[in-house]
């Protein structure tokens, strides 16, 4: 193995896809996440596409059936209880990469509409394929390019969204330098909610920042590790 490259497990669809489906059902059942047969099939299809593409495009190191079910899909879907109350139906997933957290959330929440923002063209092409093959065309769009405060509103308008009328939530998981980058996007008026998957240290660093007009909710601890949390923020009404 090349010492300069992260180890990536090989993927064999004939054995890994059925094993993933079994592992996924088990972890979701244990954690009380209820999805129907069609939704399970969509997540299994996403895993299949992820595994095949990961053989030539570095999307994730965690592609084994059990580890992917736990560290990718459960890590995201276990946070569904966070999304209650007056949440927006439009969400932007910044740095979507392999489709996390946006695609599992789009499957689990059929009423949501999403923009998956990914600056790397090859990964954006992968996301477009997933959107098509998972049957999400029409409510999930992919933006290939940066999603920064200076261009974000134009990007949303280019996706056909009326930014003068719609409100949005912001999603992010494993964003490089997230505690510094993400608060800049929160300054944009269309964003009224945010959910960030972080390690506890980064989440606490984010909470210590001055975020005028935002309420930082208590951290939501995930079943995937003692230091795995979701930080939920909502814009104050006053």
TrEMBL record:
Asked if the Swiss-Prot or TrEMBL record annotates the protein with the keyword GTP-binding, the reply is: no
Assigned EC number? 2.1.1.-
EC main class here is transferase
- What are the GO BP annotations of this UniProt entry? methylation
Binding-site residues for S-adenosyl-L-methionine, renumbered to this chain: 95, 100, 173
Write the record's keywords in alphabetical order, separated by commas: Cytoplasm, Methyltransferase, rRNA processing, S-adenosyl-L-methionine, Transferase
Record GO terms (molecular function): methyltransferase activity
Q: Source organism's superkingdom? A: Bacteria
Where does it reside?
Answer: Cytoplasm
Q: Which InterPro entries match?
A: rRNA_ssu_MeTfrase_G, SAM-dependent_MTases_sf
Query: Which family is it part of?
Result: Belongs to the methyltransferase superfamily. RNA methyltransferase RsmG family.
- What does this protein do, in the record's words? Specifically methylates the N7 position of a guanine in 16S rRNA.
Protein's name in the database:
Ribosomal RNA small subunit methyltransferase G
């Amino acid at each position: 193995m090349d010492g300069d490259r992260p180890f990536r497990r090989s993927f064999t669809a004939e054995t890994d896809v059925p094993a993933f489906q079994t592992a996924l059902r088990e972890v979701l059942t244990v954690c009380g996440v209820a999805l129907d047969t069609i939704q399970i099939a969509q997540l299994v299809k996403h895993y299949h596409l992820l595994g095949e593409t990961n053989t030539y495009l570095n999307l994730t190191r965690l592609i084994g059936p059990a580890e992917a079910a736990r560290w990718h899909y459960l890590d995201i879907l276990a946070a569904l209880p966070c999304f209650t109350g007056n949440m927006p139906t439009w969400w932007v997933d910044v740095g979507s990469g392999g489709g996390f957290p946006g695609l599992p959330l789009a499957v689990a929440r059929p009423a949501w509409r999403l923009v998956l923002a990914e600056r790397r063209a090859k990964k954006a092409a992968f996301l477009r394929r997933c959107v098509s093959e998972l049957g999400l065309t029409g409510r999930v769009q992919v933006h290939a390019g940066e999603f920064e405060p200076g261009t974000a509103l134009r990007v949303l308008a280019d996706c056909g969204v009326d930014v003068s009328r719609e409100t949005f939530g912001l999603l992010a998981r494993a964003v490089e330098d997230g505690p510094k980058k993400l608060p800049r996007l929160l300054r944009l008026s269309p964003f009224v909610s945010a959910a960030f998957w972080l390690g506890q240290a980064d989440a606490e660093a984010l909470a210590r920042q001055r975020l005028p007009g935002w309420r930082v909710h208590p951290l939501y601890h995930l079943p995937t590790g003692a230091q795995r949390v979701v930080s939920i923020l909502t814009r104050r009404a006053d």
